[in-house]
UniProtKB/TrEMBL annotation:
Pfam families registered for this protein in UniProt: CHAP
Gene3D superfamilies linked: endopeptidase domain like (from Nostoc punctiforme)
Transmembrane region(s): 201-221
InterPro entries, alphabetized: CHAP_dom, Papain-like_cys_pep_sf
SUPFAM superfamilies: Cysteine proteinases
Annotated signal peptide: none
Keywords attached to this entry: Membrane, Transmembrane, Transmembrane helix
Segments of this protein annotated with the region Disordered: 232-254
Domain (Peptidase C51) ranges: 42-128
Protein name: CHAP domain-containing protein
């Protein structure tokens, strides 16, 4: 388990004992509605996954942990990122289906694993349990659908970032060589006049322009990646989405 996920567990432990207020209000739902969905309805909705989203946000881990209220969508996000499995491990996100269907569509609760025993017993921190509180729980595998592995996504994203940086540096070196090796010539010099040959300063200016173009391209690439994450991010949904319909689900979990 990475130090980042240990930080998440530590922050979750600091929330133990927090409970719903009147009407089912929680600070996690209030934050989610104001920050992620811009919808005040979330302030009094089932909040097990919003607790995890709030924790990731507080630590700056949203990109590789996800921001969700609807638990099946969070599970699908892990599946889509090739970070889904059935082995319990500390720092994994555990998804439950209390009906026992064992399907992603049936998932209706989530928590974070803090430790796992050899016999499959897991020790977790979960929100919206025991009457609407944040608690530590000990469970077997009976209702577990699967596990999401945030560390796997984080590692993959770090690898993609390193590849982008390496590619940009390679492009910069290539442009530098081209600029250095390309001769500068002038055409249309009137007869009888001597063409002025540009000195080292001209080549240096061309090199500077090439490097500035590389930097600009890199910034555009990063901005495009961020915009794509926002526009297709896990928190986006329309008014008729399953997440809306899911608000009718039972508020209490074992």
């Amino acid at each position: 388990m990475s130090s980042e996920l240990q930080n998440m567990i530590d922050l979750l432990k600091s929330q133990l004992g927090y409970g719903e207020q009147g009407g089912g209000y929680t600070k996690y739902g209030d934050w989610y509605g104001k920050t992620v969905e811009f919808d005040s309805d979330y302030s009094a909705q089932p909040w097990c996954d919003m607790l995890l989203s709030w924790t990731a946000h507080k630590l700056g881990y949203e990109k590789w942990f996800g921001q969700f209220a609807f638990t099946p969508n969070h599970a699908r996000w892990f599946v889509d990122h090739d970070a889904w499995g059935h082995d319990p491990e500390p720092g994994a996100v555990v998804f439950y289906d209390w009906s026992g269907s064992g399907t992603v569509d049936g998932i209706d609760h989530v928590g974070m694993v803090i430790s796992a025993d050899d016999d499959g017993t897991i020790h977790t921190i979960e929100g919206n349990v025991d009457g609407g509180y944040v608690r530590e729980k000990t469970r077997d595998q009976t209702y577990v659908v699967g596990y999401g592995y945030p560390d796997k996504i984080k590692t993959a994203m770090q690898g993609q970032g390193a590849h982008t940086e390496k590619t940009s540096l390679t492009d910069a070196k290539s442009l530098t060589l081209i600029a250095a090796e390309t001769p500068l010539t002038l055409t249309g010099v009137p007869s009888g006049q001597t063409a002025h040959q540009p000195g080292p300063g001209a080549a240096g200016a061309l090199l500077l322009v090439a490097l500035l173009l590389v930097v600009a391209c890199l910034r555009v690439t990063r901005l495009s990646t961020r915009l794509a994450h926002v526009m297709t991010g896990p928190h986006r949904r329309d008014a008729a989405s399953p997440e809306r319909a899911r608000h009718a689900v039972s508020r209490r979990t074992p």
